[in-house]
Amino acid sequence: xxxxxxxxxxxxxxxxxxxxxxxxxxxxxxxxxxxxxxxxxxxxxxxxxxxxxxxxxxxxxxxxxxxxxxxxxxxxxxxxxxxxxxxxxxxxxxxxxxxxxxxxxxxxxxxxxxxxxxxxxxxxxxxxxxxxxxxxxxxxxxxxxxxxxxxxxxxxxxxxxxxxxxxxxxxxxxxxxxxxxxxxxxxxxxxxxxxxxxxxxxxxxxxxxxxxxxxxxxxxxxxxxxxxxxxxxxxxxxxxxxxxxxxxxxxxxxxxxxxxxxxxxxxxxxxxxxxxxxxxxxxxxxxxxxxxxxxxxxxxxxxxxxxxxxxxxxxxxxxxxxxxxxxxxxxxxxxxxxxxxxxxxxxxxxxxxxxxxxxxxxxxxxxxxxxxxxxxxxxxxxxxxxxxxxxxxxxxxxxxxxxxxxxxxxxxxxxxxxxxxxxxxxxxxxxxxxxxxxxxxxxxxxxxxxxxxxxxxxxxxxxxxxxxxxxxxxxxxxxxxxxxxxxxxxxxxxxxxxxxxxxxxxxxxxxxxxxxxxxxxxxxxxxxxxxxxxxxxxxxxxxxxxxxxxxxxxxxxxxxxxxxxxxxxxxxxxxxxxxxxxxxxxxxxxxxxxxxxxxxxxxxxxxxxxxxxxxxxxxxxxxxxxxxxxxxxxxxxxxxxxxxxxxxxxxxxxxxxxxxxxxxxxxxxxxxxxxxxxxxxxxxxxxxxxxxxxxxxxxxxxxxxxxxxxxxxxxxxxxxxxxxxxxxxxxxxxxxxxxxxxxxxxxxxxxxxxxxxxxxxxxxxxxxxxxxxxxxxxxxxxxxxxxxxxxxxxxxxxxxxxxxxxxxxxxxxxxxxxxxxxxxxxxxxxxxxxxxxxxxxxxxxxxxxxxxxxxxxxxxxxxxxxxxxxxxxxxxxxxxxxxxxxxxxxxxxxxxxxxxxxx
Amino acid sequence: xxxxxxxxxxxxxxxxxxxxxxxxxxxxxxxxxxxxxxxxxxxxxxxxxxxxxxxxxxxxxxxxxxxxxxxxxxxxxxxxxxxxxxxxxxxxxxxxxxxxxxxxxxxxxxxxxxxxxxxxxxxxxxxxxxxxxxxxxxxxxxxxxxxxxxxxxxxxxxxxxxxxxxxxxxxxxxxxxxxxxxxxxxxxxxxxxxxxxxxxxxxxxxxxxxxxxxxxxxxxxxxxxxxxxxxxxxxxxxxxxxxxxxxxxxxxxxxxxxxxxxxxxxxxxxxxxxxxxxxxxxxxxxxxxxxxxxxxxxxxxxxxxxxxxxxxxxxxxxxxxxxxxxxxxxxxxxxxxxxxxxxxxxxxxxxxxxxxxxxxxxxxxxxxxxxxxxxxxxxxxxxxxxxxxxxxxxxxxxxxxxxxxxxxxxxxxxxxxxxxxxxxxxxxxxxxxxxxxxxxxxxxxxxxxxxxxxxxxxxxxxxxxxxxxxxxxxxxxxxxxxxxxxxxxxxxxxxxxxxxxxxxxxxxxxxxxxxxxxxxxxxxxxxxxxxxxxxxxxxxx
Lengths: 903, 541
Known about the structure:
The complex is a heterodimer of chains A (about 900) and B (about 550). Chain A has a domain at about 785-795 and about 810-850. Helices cover about 55% and strands about 5% of the residues of chain A. Chain A has 35 helices and seven strands. In chain A, strands 1-2 form a two-stranded antiparallel sheet. The longest helix of chain A has about 40 residues, at about 420-455. By secondary structure, chain B is of the alpha+beta class. Chain B has two domains: about 100-435, YVTN repeat-like/Quinoprotein amine dehydrogenase (Methylamine Dehydrogenase, Chain H), CATH 2.130.10; about 470-535, no CATH class. In chain B, helix 1 packs across helix 2 (about 50-70). Chain B is globular, with a radius of gyration of 31 Å. The chains are: A mainly alpha (about 900), B alpha+beta (about 550). The interface between A and B is large, with 75 and 79 residues. Chain A: Pfam families: Utp14. Chain A: It is found in: Nucleus, Nucleolus. Chain A: Keywords: Nucleus, Phosphoprotein.
């Protein structure tokens, strides 16, 4: 037996012969030998147990009960001796590890171990090959040859060694004889067990549940390393030992655990025949070709570690990934997290017992559920709604028609349906035109008649009227003067009329007045009413006859508009036809009426055509026509006249946008009622026949009069104000009728109103405020508007002095555009009594956010998020508490970990 | 509306089939949104960013839940306000007299109707404290009195011996502001003079903004002044440039002050305005002076007085109430009852501002009337949280009962009419902590935190990059004399800190220079004392 050795090389040098060789067996040899030895020993000894450390311990345990005799102690001593033999390999290993860092050792869990030492390897081999053949061997292998290289030699030598060892193994079936690097089975098992423990611990860190991990460990490892066949093999092999593999051990290369036939099994070990040996040699050669001759050089530790890390990383990711849904769900919940979390008996968070979700195809998870679903499906009780069939539209011919076609058809039907209605509409429009036209004439006639009566009663003399007419003309001239004004020029130059409504209105107004004046001077009648019909633009300019003809023409057109198209189904139905017929009848009646009216109107006109309007200035004041009086007394017209009166009053109450006619004539027509006849210095002659009731209604007196005042004031006092202040359209500015002011209080009223009127007439200048306000507004608009500013520096970059032409002087001019608020984007646009300041309030700026905070995409989103009420004053207690609840609430108690996700 | 074939035309046809409970739910949501909603939803559908989308969706659901809960909480408002209702068509509520009402209500309520006959020092102006408990009376001829009017307990009464133009409670009943002949004075609850605001000259109108602690005064010169009563500083002073004002009011919704002028204009001001930039809004109300205004919670109503018409403005509708003499005062109650004082009469109108009606129906007759007994009305004002209208007239003060005028469901966290001293003190501290800054007043009070829409370019130009850095020397020499000269104050504060920077070095230099000068001056003086002959022996120190 070799002595204790701490180091390989000196011993090699010192010892020689077969002993040395034995000690210096390479690891591969040793392992194979060890294995073989073990197998052989098993074969030979059978069930006899090796007394390895473990077994010895077990023995000791067994013997614990019995007092140990001296013999036993001796035994122990013997064993100690034996153990003394065993340690050398361990010691040597440790020593070598300490001594030479470049020497690498490898071993696998099966107890195979090797040593990698590129420098010494050769040495080893050489020593092996040279010295393996000792003198005694030479005798044996006389006729043996090494036909091939070293390796061959080595192999044979190995075989030789095996053969040698056979005997020895039989002699000492002891762990000590297993070779320096071999591990006995018990040790291997121990190691693997401890490795397993380590492994389990590691995995405990990763995944909090060791049970399942333990169950799954095999699967998992195969999962992870499925791509790596070799490792899988190792695994499989390792699993034979009933434990998990040691991932930390560097054992990428493993001899395949393929069952093989050895010489031993064939019983050919003792063959001496050379022929047979040759063939055997061939066999072993084949085997060599099959399996790797030598374990591949394992990966560098670093590379291996890298691989390991990546695998470990993937694995960790996967295990952590299982928590993803849980974490997401918790993060997304609006409600806060309350610890301890609700734990369920099963410990599985996904089983929520609080509510049973309706079962359907998707949620059916368990087998039972699935079966029940299947049964229900079969029995036609399936819960899943079948996709709806698309409604197919089929036309009369039985063909399916497209959606578009269908729409078109429907539209056509609708058209047919409302044809008669459309006709009624058109008739109505024409009728209203005709009506207005007729009644306008009627009104004019009435006015003239009234004036006539007044003149007759001596209330107005021709002097008076002449004066008013003169005044009118004067104002018109004033208007004409405007044309030459600075304002008008400016408006023309800047093209302001294109966008500024006020200016445009002013310009057109001016043009119209101009035209009027010219006509008047020429002695032609002025078509005052043209403004009334501004809505229908097509015939506003035309004369009355034209208008009438046009209307008749239109009526004719409507008559022609009989339905000729195909009838829809609906229209063919009985009741629809009836309704249609009724409507048609009505329409026809209307048309007939209108015809009649127009015809009678034509008569009128033919009569009044010879009226005095056509004659020039001199005729003013004589506007009387006996026929008007006659006509007014006609019974059929009388009703209409009354109606017209009503309309007139209504309009004055509502203060319609004043027509030019009412402006001109209001002084004479619209008069302030005065029952008592006590008129002041500025009071107007009263109109007859205004009832008490009407007067009661009028709580905004003399509005029209005032409107004129505004205009005139605006025009005369402030020629720069472009348009006369627009008359206020206060449709809603209705006066509440004081119902309660019935009898006794009524008597106080007139005085009050009289005073008021007097004051208003006396201080008509109050309306200056309105004009001022308008001017102020215009100024504000102009100031805030976009401007073009000249930034030219005089003399900059230009020649000066004599001889510089004007063109050169003006050559370089610079303009910059100044941002502003356009008139039509102002907040007070078209609100004539309001000026909203468009200037920025600088002091408020410090409470504004300078830029959009992160996360928000638009201003609306950000500002919306600010408006959520927070304070307890603005919402209920519950919503307040919900809003201010902390995200995580920890209650007293044991906080168990969140149940592990199970998928 | 019907068609010829008898079918009825519906405005909004219900095209989809919706179950009843769903419709009910939608209606409820709609109402909640209308009453308690805070603006339009943002569209979350087309947001790309998942997280933002989820956040905003959560936000929207919070909004919705909050409004629904607020709507649901309405059932907790147990107080209902009842009105006088005519039983037949011929009955008129305005015919009902005060003694009839007084007879038919409970004793506690009946006691709220009373008259104070003070016919010597009138006409009287007055003010109720914010919780409606205290009444402050100011007679034109210098009589000031404050009282707990429900208990009839007089807190203080004194004579200032000069004209009193307006009186106003500040945030509690412990402070009152009185606009006297020349200055505005602040007295405490027991009538002790605390302050004389001599920067406010000849003030004719007072107004107090309780959340900003601002006293607003409007004087004969037409200057609008804001005084912070918590810090005592004059916040701003704005010239309205329209001469002596006619009225002053505040919008309780956003704290904007309304000034009414003699040319019929109303101007809206905030402390951030300046006289050069002009008011926030100018409004031409009518011809003639705007005698009085009242704004109802900023929702929509503003009432003005013309010579003979009281004009109500609601959104864009303008209505005219008939009055027969120029109205002197107008007030809108918690529940929208409008009182108009004109001549010796006061008329009260109901339902002028119906909140949610699509179309406002015209009110034909007033709700109640009072007066006509020769007492000229000076001011009308509603008592907060009560069905009581106070009327100050030239013969004293009258308190009348107007059923249904006050808010029956008060929020005692906001103003508590039954508060104890301790509660009052706590409320005062809390409201001081929650005080709003004067710059937060704007037409849209929710502008705070909104995005500044100016471009960076614009902001750059407005930032004055060429501004000269402040020169230390000139700054120091601005106030060079006295014990509290800038230099001394600076050194006093800086010496303790012991921070040496450029400014400090400069200051030290100036200091040394000044000391040297001083010494030389002293030397000269000494020499001058000794005379020309002995001057050479003067000791140099």
